[in-house]
Amino acid sequence: MNRFASVPFVPTELDELRDGHMAPARGIYRIALLIPLCGSAGIWAPSCISSAQAAVEELNRANGVNGRKVQLIMIDSAQESSLPIEETVNDLIESGSIDAIVGMHISAIRQRLSKVVRQRIPYIYTPLYEGGETTAGLYAIGETPDEQLGPAMETLQSEYRPGSWALIGNDYVWPRISHLYAKSKLKKMSVNLAYERYLPFGLSNMARHVEDIAVSGAEALLISLVGQDAVSFNRAFGAAGLDSKIVRLSCAIDENALLASGARNAKRLFVASGYFGALPTEANAAFKESYYRLHGDQAPVLNALGQSTYEGVHYLAGLLQGHPDTWRTGGVGSALPVIHRSARKPLGASRGQRAPIYLARADGLKMEVIKYFKTYS
């Protein structure tokens, strides 16, 4: 099956890296769009590509990036990819083939690439992540557990009063660090931990782990599985009929994963996120207008991971417009104010104000936002 059969490519704005080579282009600002094209996280690729294209179209209708027309270079950054990502990115930087990176991939890839990029070009990392990134020239703009996970856990604990929680995630840095935070939150709330497990990517049979969670007696469950792995887990969870006994929370299940899971497998499923496609905000309305004008009504479904590439491209443009000579010294938590477009917050939001976090409940095949939390840097 071709996962990208419905992706509306714009050939003049998007090239795919082939054999690790790309000739330099004069007068063009080339952004390497690092996204997973295969594996567990490949489910997000169509929306990530389409959202980044919407940002490029907006920039190119104006001044591009500092007067240069923008072009996207697509690179597979899946954990499961056979592409030697560090070598590929290093070669592209050294040859002058790319001018910047916008990456929507797992944190393990970011940690590897941070040692390669070394402030030679700007690196915007867009998805939710575990926090703690301090590399100069690398800007992680996504939500962190203290912003996203903490308030959601408190809300569900107050509403449902579960006696204990279970934690399940993929075996890499984001789930493990997020779960360390979750365990500290449970301790503060005087709630027990009944189960904790980390799984390899691509595990299709989740039935045994669902059964172990049922046996543990947990009444709430934090799911930190990525993409298709979360879908497989939700299907097994629904088949076991555990929704009546256990309330679920995730920070990474999006509209794509909800559709793939199916409505009957998403009962009492809650998601905390900085973005949902149905947000009734002016910023999101402007984004959706650009997105559907470019791609049409059959475009890939809007979601947080896709929107993050839209925001990442605009963040890059704002960074270089406001700080063309000093971006190498900044990074997460820096004092560099960056004015940029986003579907998560208004253009004029103050530098210290982060995008709010929303808590949504799965309602059939839709996400219904039920609460939001303000966050500040």
From TrEMBL:
Domain Leucine-binding protein: 30-321
Xref: Pfam families: Peripla_BP_6
InterPro entries: Leu-bd, Peripla_BP_I
Alphabetical keyword list: Signal
Residue ranges of coiled coil: none
Keyword Metal-binding: no
Entry's family note: Belongs to the leucine-binding protein family.
Protein name: Substrate-binding domain-containing protein
Protein's organism: Seohaeicola nanhaiensis
